[in-house]
Amino acid sequence: MMSENLHRSLWNITCLLIGASAGFMISAALIGPLSRNGRNTRWLAAGLILSVAGLVVQQGHVSIHPSFNHNDLFHSVQIVALFCFYRGAKMGA
After folding, report:
1. How far apart are CA 66 and CA 82, in angstroms?
2. Does 33 have pLDDT greater than 70?
3. I need a labelling partner for 84 at 20 to 30 A (CA). Which of 16, 34, 50, 54 fits?
4. pTM for this structure?
5. Domain residue ranges in the chain
């Protein structure tokens, strides 16, 4: 079993890396070629909307089955959102 200090340290590192990843994605979107009607902008917007929808699912504890809880549903939605971010970034490159 993990000690409490190790668990807390790993959690803090995870939160730091999540924040850094979000910062890198936002900065890349801001410096990249974005136009209001660009194809990549639609993909990036879809990724953002799906990420917010995943947040609502997870924080609202929405579950579609006892064996498929809110965390499972969130990660399924987030997989699609990350694919949209990937497509938007690839088209913008």
Report:
1. 26
2. no
3. 16
4. 0.69
5. 1-31, 35-93
